[in-house]
Each structure stands twice: as C-alpha cells, then as structure tokens.
C-alpha cells in the first residue's frame, strides 16, 4: 500500500506517525506473538452469535491484550473476527 507493507505500517504506528491502523493478528504476531492465537483453527467458535459474544466479552482481549500492545508502544482499541 501507499504507507508500505504491514511491517512498515506497524513501525509507523509505534513511532507515532500514524494514529490508527487496522492490522491482522498475523501481521502483529512478529511484535505480539500472543495475537497469533486467533489464527489457530478451532479456537474461535463456529456460531456467529458465539463469535460476537467472544470478541465482546473475552477477558484475554479486554484485560490481557491491552498491556501486551502498550508494552510495544501501541494502544489496542478493538479486536474483531476476520472471517474463515
């Protein structure tokens, strides 16, 4: 893209050059390996209502992950499913 590849975008966000980015856990995995858990088959529920509940109420996402992102100079605003 215009701003570079995914790695470039993450570096720009860490440096404060970008205020907002939308990145896949696959691309944040080099900085935050724990994010790659969402790429594992069978971890995310199958039913849409369960998926919505999981991403809205997950303690891991809302209590554990913000610190992991903050430790890398990033602020986690939200996580959402990317499809199958």
Largest sheet entry: none
Helix-strand category: mainly alpha
Helical content (DSSP H or I, runs of 4+): 40-55%
Number of DSSP strand runs: 0
Weakly predicted, low-confidence segments: none
Folded structure, characterized:
This protein is mainly α. The chain has one domain. Helices cover 42% and strands 0% of the residues. The relative contact order is 0.14. The model has no long low-confidence stretch (mean pLDDT 87). Keywords: Signal. This is C4-dicarboxylate ABC transporter. Pfam families: DctP (PF03480). It comes from Zobellella taiwanensis. InterPro entries: DctP_fam, TRAP_DctP_sf.
List the SSEs and their pairings.
Blueprint: H1 6-14, H2 25-28, H3 48-57, H4 59-70
Describe the structure concisely for a colleague.
By secondary structure, the chain is mainly alpha-helical. Helix content is 42%, strand content 0%.
């Amino acid at each position: 893209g215009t701003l570079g590849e995914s790695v470039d975008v993450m570096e720009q966000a860490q440096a404060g050059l970008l205020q907002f980015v939308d990145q896949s856990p696959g691309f944040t995995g080099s900085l935050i390996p724990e994010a790659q858990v969402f790429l594992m088959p069978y971890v995310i529920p199958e039913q849409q209502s369960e998926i919505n509940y999981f991403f809205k109420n997950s303690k891991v996402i809302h209590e554990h992950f913000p610190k992991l992102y903050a430790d890398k100079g990033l602020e986690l605003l939200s996580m959402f499913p990317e499809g199958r």
